[in-house]
């Protein structure tokens, strides 16, 4: 027991006296990203989405252990037409008896990746709002 305590003390001293230095490589955005382009027609694309409120069928698909809380999302078909690159396939493995594992797959929209599209849509709308405000002011000044 004495040897174990002494060994632990030596290890602790070595760990405390050792300093770890790590350097992080900073990669500029222009080197990290390629094929960069603006998001066009974002308002039009978002208008084609069908927002829904839903729950997973946890009774029928209890083996998948899906969340029981209500969810917000979009009908997948409406998203496939405008955002096909945001559709991902999820795989869930589950036990289907002794030593037997099955996989279930389903598709889902990566809603987090819609945030830049939403920002682009707000920007488009702000340009339209500003133009309308200027038109209103111009019409008012003619009176």
Protein model, in words:
Helices cover 42% and strands 18% of the residues. With 143 residues, it is an alpha+beta fold. A hairpin with a 5-residue loop joins strand 3 and strand 4 (101-109). The N and C termini lie far apart (98 Å).
Question: What keyword list fits this structure?
Answer:
single chain, 143 residues, alpha+beta, two-stranded antiparallel ribbon, two-stranded antiparallel sheet, 5 helices, 18% strand, flat
Q: List the total number of helices.
A: 5
Average of the residue pLDDT scores: 87
Strand order of the largest sheet: 1-2
The tally of beta strands, per DSSP, is: 4
Helical content, roughly?
40-55%
- Kindly provide the radius of gyration, computed on alpha-carbon positions and rounded to a whole number of angstroms: 28 Å
Major β-sheet annotation: 2 strands, antiparallel
List segments where confidence is low: pLDDT < 50 over at least 5 consecutive residues.
Answer: none
The termini sit apart by 98 Å
What fraction of the residues are assigned to beta strands by DSSP? 15-25%
Shape: flat
Q: SSE string, helix = H, strand = E?
A: HHHEEHEEH
Query: What structural class results from the helix and strand content?
Result: alpha+beta
